[in-house]
Design brief:
Layout (H helix, E strand, L loop, with lengths): L8 E4 L1 H15 L3 H19 L5 E6 L3 H15 L3 E6 L8 H12 L4 E3 L9 E5 L11 H11 L5 E4 L21 E5 L2 E2 L6 H6 L1 E5 L5 H6 L3 E4 L24 E5 L6 H13 L4 E6 L4 H7 L4 E4 L3 H10 L2 E4 L7 H11 L5 E3 L2 H9 L7 E3 L3 H8 L3 H6 L1 H12 L2 E4 L5 E5 L5 E7 L11 H14 L4 H23 L8 H11 L5
Parallel strand pairs: 1-8, 2-3, 2-5, 3-4, 5-6, 6-7, 7-9, 10-19, 11-12, 11-14, 12-13, 14-15, 15-16, 16-17
Antiparallel strand pairs: 1-10, 17-18, 18-19
Helix pairs in contact: 2-3, 2-4, 3-4, 8-16, 12-13, 16-17, 17-18
Length: 506
């Protein structure tokens, strides 16, 4: 019987990858060394595809199976007539198991290991086969020196499975971790290559499944790596019926915009409208009304100092987006407390997160928070380095703390949700995004998109995943035209409209 392909791409921890390797060997009927030969062959093939003129390789090996992959690469290269220098950290004689078999096979091919030292200056490509998924803690001693030699070589680096020093489970990178131009990873896609510092250190990530059957992956589900185009129907707004009307498409109320920060609520409100919300109201300083209506007359504006108007708009809300430009004064604190008293789903971003952490406010309705690392640190009572040191764990902790959904923004945004038993589960990692998004207002647009999806009927979990991915995909489309240095938050709106226009028609 032919089994269907997986509907999602999944990411795995180090322990899960070891389990996948065992299952793969059983499914393929191969030994560990034979699987190692497949991995080495795939890595060498990738190397030649990326650097077809490479004739001199430096392969830097450690002690475990990652070193075995390096020996296989070196042996294949030598058999094909390339010049190979294999630099061994520690004694080659200390290798055991499949790595020892790879060492002996490479010796038959004419590869003689040398003590690790400086990377040869004439190397066309350096292969990092030091540590792979086996890293515990930081880099030290000879391994730190070898990683420094790789980074200091000035030569392009191919990392085998994982750049040495990158933590597979967390996305963090140890001090001095290898920076690769290309990482070729095998069987299980590693979680740490797709979020945080791991993205920077991995460079271009090439995935090779080594012929492992799809059934193996279905037996061991991982953490979804979401692409907007491949989201399941539960994470998508259904097409509009021919008799659709605005009241059925939700009313988003955006709360914020203190003095000098009116642009934040304008961007959030327009984003909510552009992704399909039926109506959007802005509760803000009265002085922002002219700019709001001049920029987007479809938005409705209420004076935040008019208690009756505020109560009226909040009473009509299908969902609330609170925090863009809110500020941290008493004005913003009182306004946020009023907004959170409404029992409707609320997206909390920007200054709203800081006020929530400072004032200990509680939400009457479901809460969806979208912090960057600094805001997450304030919510969790730690520092930003701790958050970045284990992004998946931080997202889970945030979801538990707010008893709702958390989107930890940044490279490879991580999304988590609390469950009914006060635990939390990772909903996944966003596969889109680029460095051009490091620009003011990006979070305001994202919160508006998520609010617009909530208004149209998606659950908080569904809106968090879909909105985060749609926002980042729009940035990827926009950056192709504008470049990373020139990308502005409002540039995402036209790109998002184009993405939505390409979806199935009503």
């Amino acid at each position: 019987m032919t089994l269907p392909l997986r509907s999602t791409i999944e990411l795995y921890t180090a322990a899960q990858c070891r389990d996948l390797d065992r299952r793969a060997m059983a499914a393929l009927g191969v030994t560990g060394f034979e699987l190692m030969q497949r991995a080495g062959s795939a890595a060498f093939e990738t190397l030649l595809q990326r650097w077809p003129r490479a004739r001199r390789l430096a392969v830097v090996c450690g002690k475990g199976n990652n070193a075995g992959d390096g020996y296989v690469i070196a042996g294949i290269a030598r058999r094909l007539g390339l010049s190979v220098r294999l630099l061994q950290v520690g004694e080659a004689a200390a290798l055991g198991g499949d790595a020892a078999r790879a060492r002996d096979w490479a010796a038959e091919c004419g590869v003689a290991p040398e003590s690790a030292a400086a990377v040869p200056a004439d190397a066309d490509v350096v292969v990092d086969a030091l540590l792979g998924t086996g890293l515990r803690g930081g880099l030290s001693g000879d391994f730190a020196a070898a990683a420094a030699a790789i980074n200091g070589s000035g030569r392009p680096v191919l990392a085998v499975d994982v750049p040495s020093g990158v933590h597979v489970d967390t996305g963090s990178a140890a001090e001095g971790a290898v920076r690769a131009a290309v990482t070729v990873t095998f069987i299980g896609r590693k979680l740490g290559l797709h979020t945080g510092a791991g993205l920077d250190h991995a460079g271009e990530v090439i995935y090779r499944d080594l012929g492992v059957p799809e059934a193996v992956f279905r037996e061991l589900p991982g953490c979804p790596w979401w692409r907007y185009e491949a989201l399941p129907d539960a994470y998508r707004v259904p097409p509009r019926g021919r008799n659709a009307y605005k009241h059925a498409l939700g009313h988003v109320v955006v709360v914020g915009g203190d003095h000098d920060m009116g642009g934040a609520v304008i961007m959030a409100g327009e984003a909510a409208l552009r992704c399909g919300a039926g109506m959007v109201s802005i509760i803000t300083r009265a002085g922002h009304r002219p700019a709001l209506l001049a920029r987007r007359p479809e938005l409705m504006v209420a004076d935040a100092d008019d208690d009756e108007a505020v109560a009226d708009r909040l009473g009509r809300a299908t969902c609330i987006v609170a925090g863009p430009g809110l500020g941290r004064t008493e004005w913003g604190s009182l306004l946020l407390a009023t907004a959170l008293s409404r029992p409707v789903p609320t997206v909390l971003d920007a200054d709203g997160l800081t006020v929530l952490a400072r004032d200990g406010l509680q939400a009457a309705g479901p809460l969806l928070v979208t912090p960057h690392a600094g805001e997450a640190a304030r919510l969790l009572g730690c520092d930003a380095a701790t958050v970045q040191g284990d992004r998946p764990a931080a997202a889970l902790a945030l979801a538990r703390q707010v008893a709702g959904v958390a989107v930890l923004k940044g490279a490879g945004s991580v999304i988590a949700a609390a469950t009914g038993d006060a635990e939390a589960a990772l909903l996944g990692v966003c596969a889109h995004g680029n460095p051009g998004m490091a620009s003011a207002g990006m979070g305001d647009v994202q919160s508006g998109i998520i609010g617009g999806l909530l208004a149209q009927g998606l659950t908080p979990a569904g809106a968090a995943v879909a909105g985060t991915c749609l926002h980042a995909l729009a940035a990827d489309r926009a950056v192709q035209r504008l470049g990373q240095r020139s990308l502005l938050a409002t540039d995402l709106l036209d790109a998002m409209v184009a993405v939505l226009a390409a979806e199935r028609p009503a």
